[in-house]
Amino acid sequence: MQYCDLFRTWRFFAAIGRPQNVEGVRKLVTPKYRYIIYYVIDEGAEEIVILTIRHPARSREYRDV
Fold it and tell me: pLDDT band at 26, cuts 50/70/90?
């Protein structure tokens, strides 16, 4: 899956990411390079707000629920 395909899918299925231990925060792992994107969904503004993009070798701010 190319990144354009990932972002296109993400636009229509914003809740595709895995919920984290902090309420509202979700995690999406990108294909190929496995970067971890932490984000929240702002339903009122109909936006996905990216909190951080992390390399998997770095320490993580959030944990899976």
Answer: very high
